[in-house]
Write a structure and sequence with these properties.
- Two copies of one chain form a homodimer.
- Chain A has eight helices and six strands, in the order αβαβαβααβααβαβ.
- The first copy, chain A, is of the alpha/beta class.
- Chain A folds into two domains: about 1-30; about 35-200, 3-Layer(aba) Sandwich (Rossmann fold), CATH 3.40.50.
- The first copy, chain A, has a six-stranded parallel sheet, with helices on both faces.
- The longest helix of chain A has 23 residues, at about 5-30.
- The interface between A and B is large, with 93 and 93 residues.
Chain lengths: ~210, ~210
């Protein structure tokens, strides 16, 4: 089947046996079950996109059970992510998507309007947190609303912490507040290593929109 | 509508006007269109998940046009991401998913078998790269196959660079090779800031599987 020397194959096998023992022990040590508070932050791409990818995990579970619906509340963006919204429409009522933001804050240029929009979005988020059919709630760009003080940080964190057991919440957006990171179970920072915009390549269909 | 002082509102407006001018100028400066070579790497979560989220962008485009199908080749994982696979089945023939890996390398413990599996997966990837109905190709965990030298790096990079115009390719997996980062248009590193495993919380349905 191959020309790999027996010695090398044995070495590989021994190394991987060791690795497997470590992995298995690690998995066995984790026993607690709970809904997670997840934060995707950083200046890189993929924060919202990974959240929508997580939605697929929930939607891949058998339909009709408690917690197999997905809620999305968009706090800031409206124009972006419309293709994902269109695609998730394939799952019908299993995805409940609310675009509450008025667009980027540098598009609206109106603080009162942005604050009011963030408050409406937060009220919708609270409504969905109470809905037991929902297993995953994506609060898209909530970090931006918090950064600009459109919403009181203390209130938001207290409510997220008091969420019902079993509900996963994903908060996206750059510049996550330290208090939110402190409260979260899982935080990933998306770091930009290299971007095609730097090379003069424009926003691409299928990638940026 | 609000109790924001006029002065503060005006200051906000002026700041955002400035910000908008910068954004608009930046967008206008990007003119090139091309399929992108994208790499998701790093030890954090969300590398594959963000790739599957990108799939939704392609699938949200109107059906039937060239480049609106998605290909997935899984080089290493088999057991994970089955929920995403089940969910993407909702899009029928628009998603072509091939799980070619035999599982994690520390599960198989067999170098010859892993090398042969990686070769078969790469041949499938080449086949999908030639298929013009596909607009986005996800090479899931290819970085792992490259890291363990299951495939020759030079051959892989040359083929990826020579891909047809308009095809987006996403390569996932930690420890991306520097030569691949060099060849890529867009590289995001997912950095682990905080993980619930550390707090003894186990892999959660809807998040890890």
């Amino acid at each position: 089947m191959s020309d790999i020397p027996a010695e090398e194959a044995a070495r590989h096998r021994a190394k991987m046996e060791k690795r497997k023992a470590v992995q298995d022990a690690e998995v066995a040590s984790k026993t607690q079950e709970k809904g997670l508070l997840i934060v995707h932050t950083g200046a890189g791409k993929g924060k919202s996109t990974a959240a929508f990818g997580l939605a697929l995990r929930t939607l891949g579970q058998p339909e009709g059970q408690a917690g197999t619906r997905v809620g999305v509340v968009q706090f800031i963006k409206g124009a972006w992510h419309s293709a994902e919204r269109d695609a998730l429409a394939a799952f019908g009522a299993r995805v409940e998507w609310h675009t509450m933001g008025e667009g980027f804050t540098w598009e609206t240029q109106d603080l009162a309007r942005d604050t009011a929009a963030a408050r409406r979005a937060w009220e919708k988020a609270c409504e969905l947190m109470a809905d037991e059919s929902i297993g995953l709630l994506i609060l898209d760009e909530l970090n931006i609303a918090l950064r600009y003080d459109y919403l009181p940080l203390d209130e938001v964190i207290a409510t997220l912490k008091a969420r019902r057991e079993g509900l996963h919440v994903v908060v996206t957006g750059r510049n996550a507040k330290p208090a939110l990171i402190e409260a979260a179970d899982l935080v990933t920072e998306m770091t930009l290593v290299k971007h095609h915009f730097k090379a003069g390549v424009k926003a691409q269909k299928g990638i940026e929109f």
